[in-house]
Amino acid sequence: MKLSPRQFEIIEAAGKLLSSGGISNLTTKNLALEMKFSEAALYRHFKNKNEIIIAMLNYLASHMDSRIEDILKENVCSISKLELLFNDQFKFFSENRHFLVTIFSDGLWENNTEIHNAVKGVMAVKKKHLNLIFSEGISNNQFTSKINKEGLIHISMGAFRLHLLKWKMDNYEFNLKKTGEKISNDLIELIKKQS
Predict the structure, then answer these.
(1) What is the pTM of this model?
(2) Where are the domains of the chain?
(3) Does the pLDDT at position 48 exceed 90?
């Protein structure tokens, strides 16, 4: 997704507001104050608050897609690719927690079809890449064949999402990258092909 520098500043400011006070804190008035310009100036870049949130989610999906594609080009085994994917994701969210808040904010996407679809788009990107990793890993006997590919994707995405949610609910007090590495190692131990 292509954003202008100003649009990117706006979505980062929106993320800060979401991080500090939840969905009720994200108003055009508060956003204009954070950006230090008028509400009218916001509308030159985005039509409304929902468009800002959708831009955040679309940017997240596009950025994630690009980062993971780079990982998949690495000349390493499927297990290493899965480790790299998880580590990259935990690093990104630890440095950009406002994107995490957008995904987990209660009431943000439940009643808005466009935002709901944008969240699903983020999940679809991750699922697409996990599908490639598990397809390759199962055919190379690196992952168990006792669980089908869809089950492996579901388990992996669930473990990842649960760990991010726990971090958010604990007010970001633990080291996401360090604990995330342990989670990914445990997960890989469970799903790799046993010799």
Answers:
(1) 0.88
(2) 50-191
(3) no
